[in-house]
Amino acid sequence: MINKLDAALNFHQTALRVRNERQELLASNIANADTPQYKARDIDFQSAMKAALQPNASAGTPSSGGALQQTNSGHLNGMGNSGYVSGASDPLFRSVVQGSADGNTVDMDVERNAYVDNGIRYEASLTMIGGQIKKMLSAINGQQ
């Protein structure tokens, strides 16, 4: 029974985890809007979700779904402690919309919009989880 409950909530749990990581990156971009040479970063949500939902992805740990091959013992193994859901969701640098003289690539309009959009989608995931839990409780209690 616990496996069925876990499976029912797994998708939303993963979505919340990826959205949280994206929110942190967007907040970092906004906080560093005036930092010279700072490069704005973001996560490709769709790729991150696909990688996180792979069967070999364990909760809260990086997946080796797209593992790099070590051709030399001196090379990094690709399993760094990045703290992100998977290698596919490692932060990507955002393309430059309008360059600045100091090399900073943060566009505050883009960042604010992405931050608010991601926050709304995070709240929507929470609402969906709440609805699923209410349905499960109704089924357990025998109510309709």
Overall tally of structural domains: 1
Catalogue the unreliable spans.
57-66, 79-88
How many H/I helices? Answer: 3
Termini distance? 20 Å
**What would you report as the Rg, rounded to the nearest angstrom?**
19 Å
Strand content: under 5%
Helix amount, in percent?
A: 40-55%
The number of E-state strands comes to 2
- Sheet of most strands: 2 strands, antiparallel
Strand order of the largest sheet: 1-2
Q: Topology as H/E string?
A: HEHEH
Short précis:
This protein is an all-alpha fold and 144 residues long. The protein contains 3 helices and 2 strands.
Would you mind describing this structure in some detail?
By secondary structure, the protein is mostly helical. It is built from 3 helices and 2 strands; from the N terminus they run H-E-H-E-H. The chain has a two-stranded antiparallel ribbon. Helix 1 packs antiparallel against helix 2. The longest helix is centred in the last third of the chain and has 34 residues. The radius of gyration is 19 Å and the shape is flat. The two termini are 20 Å apart. About 14% of the residues have low confidence.
How are the SSEs placed, and which strands pair?
Elements: H1 2-31, E1 41-42, H2 45-52, E2 92-93, H3 108-141
Antiparallel strand pairs: 1-2
Relevant terms:
144 residues; two-stranded antiparallel sheet; 3 helices; 2 strands; flat
